[in-house]
Amino acid sequence: MNVALLGTGLLGQAVAERLHATGHHLSAYNRTPEKTLALRQQGLHIASTAVEAIAAAEVVILLLADAAAIRAVLLDPSTSQVLGGRTIIQMGTIGPSESCSIGEEIERLGGQYLEAPVLGSIAEAKSGALLIMVGATPERYATWAPLLQALSSDVRLIGPVGKAAVMKLALNQLIAAETAAFALSLGLIRRGGVDVENFMAVLRKSALYAPTFDKKLPRLAERNYARPNFSTRHLLKDVELTLAAADSAQLSPGGLPGVRSLLSDTIALGLGDVDYSALYERVDPVAGT
């Protein structure tokens, strides 16, 4: 299948590699050309404009940073003219109302739209093990599930457009909340002089355990946040979206505003583009910093 992929950041690059490896013909575009160099070296076609990428494609996959980026890349006057008759699959994390609004604009331009945000990151994308949540009509889901199955063995229809975006935020806020809670626990253990392995041994046997704790433990123990799968800056964006959705739904956000502050403070430390577990530097800073 001829696929245009717009957005070749951390996840976008991995998705492009997987689709290419599974036999799809890909044309990729990114506003920052340097982010396409690795794909070019692997033999993928790199378009110089979004219009060029879309022109030869049956379907357009979006893995852009946010709704503003989608509007800037996809819905500018030149690009919007080539959307007629094409399907747009939005796979990034945006708010439910944003997804619905963008979908309506695409439909007015003669295109078709569905949302398919994912859970998982670089390794899962490259191995085809993402979890994909689809917001679409049943008919569009049936049409495009085979393409998405190149990236996942679990492609799930959640409901109409907007519903998968809600589920994605509900899951991503757990990433933020669990990591902040674990960072505080680890800080208490470290400063209290308790053996970390004893703490982890008890935690692993309890109902409190989440696999992400072991996944992030080496980063926190070594204070090594390089080569991120998901950056602090992007997690803050998702927390902001969750807080907006909670407000719209008249929900109390609990401790999430505090997590937002942690992430904002972490970015202020110059740690916006490293792994989000760097929030540990704000929770348990090294003495003298």
Main features:
289 residues, single chain, 9 strands, alpha/beta, 14 helices, Rossmann fold, six-stranded parallel β-sheet, three-stranded mixed β-sheet, N-(1-d-carboxylethyl)-l-norvaline Dehydrogenase, domain 2
Write up this protein:
There is one protein chain. The strands form two sheets. Strands 3-2-1-4-5-6 form a six-stranded parallel β-sheet, sandwiched between helices. A three-stranded mixed β-sheet has the order 7-8-9, sandwiched between helices. The model has no long low-confidence stretch (mean pLDDT 96). The chain is globular and about 65 Å long. The chain has 14 helices and nine strands. It is an alpha/beta fold and 289 residues long.
SSE layout and pairing:
Layout (H helix, E strand, L loop, with lengths): L1 E5 L3 H12 L3 E5 L7 H5 L3 E2 L3 H6 L3 E4 L4 H8 L2 H4 L6 E4 L5 H13 L3 E4 L2 E2 L2 H6 L3 E5 L2 H11 L5 E6 L3 H29 L4 H9 L6 H12 L9 H17 L7 H13 L11 H4 L6
Parallel strand pairs: 1-2, 1-4, 2-3, 4-5, 5-6, 8-9
Antiparallel strand pairs: 7-8
Helix pairs in contact: 9-11, 9-12, 12-13
Radius of gyration in whole Å, from Cα?
A: 20 Å
**Terminus-to-terminus distance:** 53 Å
Task: Name the CATH superfamily assignment of the largest domain.
Answer: NAD(P)-binding Rossmann-like Domain
How large a portion of the residues is in β-strands, by DSSP E?
Answer: 5-15%
Q: What would CATH call the architecture of the largest domain?
A: 3-Layer(aba) Sandwich
Integer tally of domains: 2
The top-level CATH class of the largest domain is Alpha Beta
- Overall pLDDT score: 96
- The assigned structural class equals alpha/beta
Secondary structure tally, helices: 14
Question: What's the main sheet like?
Answer: 6 strands, parallel
Name the strands of the widest sheet in spatial order. Answer: 3-2-1-4-5-6
Percent of residues in helices comes to: 40-55%
* Weakly predicted, low-confidence segments: none
Number of strands: 9
Shape label: globular
If you consult CATH, what is the topology of the largest domain?
Rossmann fold
Order of helices and strands: EHEHEHEHHEHEEHEHEHHHHHH
